[in-house]
């Protein structure tokens, strides 16, 4: 982004209106929860498998492997095993040594490690000696900003939003996945003594009493709430809360030339992944939109599914021959909750991954009941 010149005074006594409050700071990353990362690596290899059997979370002789690839060439069968290292630090030599033993016990023909943060220097010597391939996975988001932007304006970027439970002191995190935070900031109700405010309203009031905000300077804010404040979070439980916490920065925000997709959808469409070898050279690149993240999905009526690249959640209502009846239960776009009912050919099932998180399923059930006209 271009630098925005504002002198040294920041935004003195000039609160930003709610229309220029942004809730997009946490982009999609290659460091999601480990199960998602492993599935991503499996899907990348499945895309280039050419008929091989790719299995995510496989077991061989009682030992777990993140990804396995089995194929037959000529008269012989071959096995490749892959270990996914979603660490915040570089992979250690000890981890490579341990995987060498594990792969040898499984009688693998090829062993591969995929890391998100590279390897310690000694790892490459071990890998060469034992024929292990070390790869690093990078994420890139390729968007031609000039095609989208009409002008730039200051905006208050709000993130890491939490409420503190009055009884237990535990923090309630307002989820920021897939545009949900924007929706919650407008639709969560903080009720006390007959007065109800949204988190957005609290932030605007806070701005009125804030003397200065500087560009790109992070602010950590805690607002004490009146006694007996009840937080009503949409499709979740209501709780007594005592404090509203968030982080924020004044950033340069783009005003688009024309209507565009919500940021999390646009970024999903523009995201690519690169596999790099030990020299840093890109050995393979693929767009997220081309990956079949649900390559092993077998649809079942009565279950919930997600399209990870779009962060949309669906309910499989019924399957009639080759037709799937879907209910789009949860999709957030520009701060609004969108839902729909549609029919799709079953051949597109590879775009969907089953939802297994119990907390999320409980919320999706409430949304489904509400959509069907029942009380949530």
Which terms summarize this structure?
SH3 type barrels; 7-stranded mixed sheet; 19 strands; single chain; alpha+beta; 376 residues
Explain this structure to me?
It is a single chain. The protein is α+β, with helices and mostly antiparallel strands and 376 residues long. Among the domains are: 118 residues, no CATH class; 75 residues, SH3 type barrels (Roll), CATH 2.30.30. The protein is 21% helix and 41% strand. The chain is built from eight helices and 19 strands. Strands 1, 7, 8, 9, 10, 11 and 12 form a seven-stranded mixed beta sheet that branches. Strands 2-3-4-5-6-13-14 form a seven-stranded mixed beta sheet, sandwiched between helices. A five-stranded antiparallel beta sheet has the order 18-17-16-15-19. Strand 17 and strand 18 form a beta hairpin. Helix 2 runs parallel beside helix 3. The radius of gyration is 24 Å and the shape is globular. The two termini are 43 Å apart. The N terminus is likely disordered.
